[in-house]
Specification:
Layout lengths: L2 H13 L4 H13 L1 H12 L2 H7 L3 H12 L6 H18 L5 H15 L1 H15 L43 E4 L4 E3 L9 E2 L2 E5 L3 E6 L4 E14 L2 E12 L8 E4 L2 E5 L3 E6 L6 E7 L2 E5 L4 E5 L4 E4 L5 E4 L9 H16 L5 E5 L28 E3 L2 E4 L6 E5 L5 E6 L5 E10 L6 E7 L7 E6 L4 E5 L17 E9 L4 E6 L2 E7 L10 E5 L18 E9 L5 H11 L6
Parallel strand pairs: 7-8
Antiparallel strand pairs: 1-3, 1-5, 2-4, 4-6, 5-6, 6-7, 7-10, 8-9, 9-12, 10-11, 11-14, 12-13, 14-15, 16-29, 17-20, 18-19, 19-29, 20-28, 21-25, 21-29, 22-23, 22-28, 23-24, 25-26, 26-27
Helix pairs in contact: 1-2, 2-8, 4-7, 5-6, 5-7, 6-7, 6-8, 7-8
């Protein structure tokens, strides 16, 4: 993707100068790159003008904005033009002074609701305008977001409205492990943001992350209906729900009633065949309501209660095994952190090995660089195989032959570098075993390797190059390895499992790093090299990132914590 073009289009959106085709182009970029939406959210959040405008009656303006967004039933460019016109009028009503002032108000309100709403608006306009050939058409999908502030949802197919669902708000919800989630038409999700509707999951760990901080870990197969930010209907499967203490009122609807919490952690499971549901309070209390909205009981911490479709209750023995274990929840948390990481503006290369759906043991597919801002050329994959990564359902890549490697081209010079990856070593066959090596060994080249004795070493070619080794790492265990190389301070460091393991100087003669063509998991020595040429890695790699800056100790520790597959000490 052309990052400069994206930034130009975003500037045009801010200035209200984009024509219809340019809006469609921007919509396509936002729809295909969730990381850019996150970056846009960060950019908006730091704009002092928008912050100032947000302080001026933003709640009233947001209400007008939502009404304007829901006012038109047209489709195509007419709908887009009318929407912009309505938003302009809303902006003027809120204190604006013409079309040049209304768009910052629009962006402010969208930021308050969710930056992803902006993408939804543009993408919906695009989808409305693009006409596919008959042979390529899909079943029409429901509107992206039903943005209404006064609608009442009827969750009961028998026709008994639930008063708890009145006054519903726009939904901000992301799916973690979207590759295992399908809409009610059987279509696999294409991005990580979902809107109100019914969804099904495969037999893998799946997570929902709400903008309010609420997290739901689903054990599939499951079927659920996202209603709004505070309401979810579980038709089948098991969900472990963590609600921050500052939140209250999140409700899970089941056959016969609903469960409502106030800053708690609890599990709910529903048997599709019988319609019976169970609730287990892991922490705090969960209020139990009938389908008529009457509070009938409370599940206290450590207590499990079963409800039948008629709303009858009885206490049962708690069975925590129904719900995801902490390691599976850590996987879901890493998935969220990984999506955010991809938006880092200094990230040049990022391979998360996430959601590729390739069959384990088969040749690795072409890799996609999830760091989209810098236009690094596509990597070359030679040999290697897709295997299990740090968690069940999470993939990694296996290097087990001397010809296996992934090659990337980093021809731009840089003065700072950070490399971070997770590795699980099967064996150490050579005196040096490559994690990441510049092809050859010349001025400014960088090598990150493991010795035969299990010590990690970062080498930078130059005068008086000095070897500094870490402690030994374990074979058969996942380790997080990070190296930083700084030509400005002339320091290089290695971190293992979140902690500084060694540090040493970068030769004074090295003013910039010249990585050139590089290999992950192997090395391509030049013909004049007389040292050991064989350095192929033997083991698995799961997640690889390369930045053109130095990550500080706090960032490195956060990478370790978010990606650690093992229980905390």
């Amino acid at each position: 993707m052309d990052v400069d073009r994206f930034e130009w289009l975003m500037a045009g959106l801010t200035e209200n100068t984009l024509d219809g085709d340019e809006q469609l182009e921007l919509a396509g970029m936002l729809d295909s790159s969730p990381g850019l939406v996150l970056q846009l959210q960060d950019d908006l959040a730091t704009d002092s003008l928008l912050v100032q405008l947000a302080q001026n009656d933003s709640a009233q303006f947001r209400e007008r904005l939502l009404n304007a967004m829901n006012a038109s039933g047209r489709t195509g460019q007419d709908a887009g033009d009318l929407l912009l016109s309505d938003l302009a009028n809303a902006g003027s009503a809120a204190g604006g002074s013409g079309s040049g002032r209304f768009l910052p108000w629009v962006l402010t309100a969208i930021l308050l609701v969710s930056t992803t709403v902006l993408a939804a608006i543009l993408v919906q306009q695009r989808d409305d305008q693009v006409t596919l050939p008959v042979a390529d058409r899909q079943v029409p999908r429901e509107p992206t977001v039903e943005l209404t502030s006064d609608s009442v949802v009827d969750p009961d197919p028998a026709g008994n409205p639930d008063p708890a669902l009145a006054g519903r708000q726009p939904v901000l919800c992301r799916v973690l492990n979207a590759a295992g989630v399908f809409d009610d038409m059987g279509h696999e999700l294409k991005n990580s943001t979902i809107t109100p509707g019914t969804y099904l999951t495969r037999d893998i760990a799946t997570g929902l992350q709400f903008g309010s901080g609420i997290q739901i870990a689903l054990r599939g197969p499951a079927r659920f209906e996202l209603i709004d930010n505070q309401n979810l209907r579980l038709h089948s499967g098991a969900a472990r729900i963590v609600v921050p203490r500052r939140q209250s009122g999140f409700t899970v609807h089941v056959p016969g009633g609903r469960f409502e919490n106030d800053g708690t952690e609890f599990g709910i499971s529903v048997d599709a065949a019988s319609g019976c549901s169970e609730v287990l309070a892991f922490e705090g209390n969960v209020a139990i309501f009938s389908s008529r909205g009457e509070k009938v009981d409370t599940a206290h911490e450590g207590v499990a209660v079963r409800m039948n479709p008629k709303g009858l209750l009885h206490q049962i023995a708690a069975d925590p095994s129904r719900y995801l274990v902490p390691s599976e929840i850590r996987f879901i948390n890493w998935s969220l952190a990984s999506l955010n990481l991809a938006a880092d503006p200094d990230l040049l290369v990022y391979f998360p090995w996430r959601d590729s759906q390739k069959i384990p043991g088969q040749p690795a597919p072409p890799l996609t660089n999830a760091a989209v801002r810098h236009g690094i050329s596509a990597p070359e994959v030679h040999g290697t195989r897709i295997v299990s990564g740090r968690w069940h359902g999470k993939e990694g890549i296996l290097f087990d032959n001397s010809s296996d490697y992934v090659q990337i081209d980093l021809t731009r010079p840089m003065t700072q570098l950070t490399i971070a990856t997770w590795v699980n070593i099967d064996r150490l066959d050579y005196s040096m075993n490559s994690i990441f090596n510049s092809n050859g060994w010349s001025e400014g080249n960088v090598h990150l390797q493991i010795t035969r004795t299990g010590h990690v070493w970062t080498g930078v070619f130059g005068d008086n190059e000095e070897r500094t080794l870490t402690q030994e790492i374990s074979v058969g265990q996942w380790h997080h390895i990070v190296t930083t190389v700084d030509c400005e301070s002339h320091q290089r460091r290695v971190y293992i499992d979140g902690k500084l393991a060694s540090e040493g100087p970068v030769p004074e003669s090295v003013q910039s790093l010249q990585l050139g063509k590089c290999r992950i998991g192997n090395w391509l020595p030049s013909d004049d090299v007389v040292v050991t040429r064989d350095r192929a890695l033997r083991g698995r790699m799961d997640e690889f990132g390369l930045w053109q800056r130095i990550l500080d100790e706090k960032e490195i520790s956060e990478l370790w914590v978010s990606g650690n597959p093992y229980p905390a000490d």
